[in-house]
Structure formats: C-alpha cells, structure tokens
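Changelog-adjacent note: as of this version, every example in the card shows the full chain rather than a window. The one below runs 257 residues end to end.
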Amino acid sequence: MTDSAAATTAAGAEHMITAILAAESHHEALGLCSEKLVPAAVRTAFRRRALICHPDKVRATTPAESARAEAAFRRIAVAFDALHEPKAGSTTEPRAKRRRHANSSAGQGGRSEEEHGEEASWDEWERDLRRFEDLERWFVGLHSARYADRHTRRLLEKAAKTVTELDERAGVADNPELLAIDSELADGGYTGCNDGCETQSELHLANLLLYMREQHKYCFFCATRFEDLEDLERSCPGLTEADHAQAAEELTGDYDY
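Full-length structure tokens:
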C-alpha cells in the first residue's frame, strides 16, 4: 500500500471511529437506518465496522488513537448485542455477551460499556459470527426442505386421487402403486432430507405422473387427456411441474433471472 493510500485508509477509519463515538443510538453506531432489521444485516454492519476499530485490526500510531479505537469497538459491541437479540444463555451467542451472562450469574453483575468486548479477540468474534451464519443457513435450508416436502406430498395426494378416478373409468383395479402411496401418506410427518436425495414422496409422485401419461394419455399438470402419446408429447410441456412453469414463463415473457 502506498503512503497516499495508507493515509486515505487511515482518514476513513478515523472518520468512522468518530461517527461511532458520536452515535446517539445503537442503529447509528452500526450505521443502520432501518428500525426493522434481520440478524444478517446487523452482523454485516457490525463486521464492517469491527474490522476497522477492533484492537486486533486497528493500526494506531499513538496511545490516544488506540484508546479511541477500543472505545469505538466497545460501542459497536454493545450495539450488536442489543440489536442482534440472541436468546440469553444460548451457546450461539457472541463470546463477549456469553461471558457477561456468566459474570452476572456469578454475582459479579453486568459489564459496563467500557468493559464490553475486551475479553474476546477478533478471531473469537469472527468465529462466533460465522457460527450464527452457519446456523441460519441450516435453519433456512431445513425449512425450505420441509416446505418442498409438504408441497410434494400435497401433489402426491392430488395425483393419487386423479389416478384412482382414471383407473375407475378404465376398469383398472388394485393398482399396486396406489397401495404403496396409501401407506406412504398414512405415515405423515416430514420425510425429506437436506443433502439433495429424493424422498419417497418424490419417487411415488414421479411414478404416478409417468403412469398417467403412459396408461391414460393424461397430463396431471395440464389436467388434460390427449388423443394418443404422440399428441401428448407434442402438446404437453413435459413431465414435471417445473417443465410447465418454464413453459408458462416463456409464453408470458416473465423470466426470473
């Protein structure tokens, strides 16, 4: 880094530290405007400012500069704890806050702003922030998988009903695939997985979709019975719900890029 670039960086850091120390609210200390924030936004704002004023990161040239940076970090650490709002006592709380709870439960009381954040190195803060992010990704992925599985099971129930009606009209009895699906649906609950594997519901649904097309010349998503397989292949966008959604987007020009 050139001398001029270093001077510019130092001036920017000093400006941010001054703004933090002058902040009248937790939001202002972290440079946040909205009162309604998701935890990820709080973490991003905290990390951006902590990288400038944490004692392990600051490039202070005098004791006074070092003291100002430390005071600024303590200020944003307090703001982070207040705005991120983890559950008290959770093992996923930031290290500084967990230690404050431990001190309080031992009869030593809470820490003042001057004491806040002094015990944790930047590596410890970064590790805790990443733990938050890993847990959040896992939580979102789990709920997405559960939503997808519930959606698949709803489609499976509708497809099984459709096959039953088609079979009855065609005089087909004791469809073995329907018997297996009845057992699957009776189990209830979440049967999905998070590593990209196919669930039993997905396999049963695929089998029913293929059965309707091959045996009844019927597309579940088109809700149409075609003249023959050639007519079906020519007129139907495809086997899956995604195939039909893509075809609809192409017709309307509503692409989700």
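Structural remarks: The chain has ten helices and two strands.
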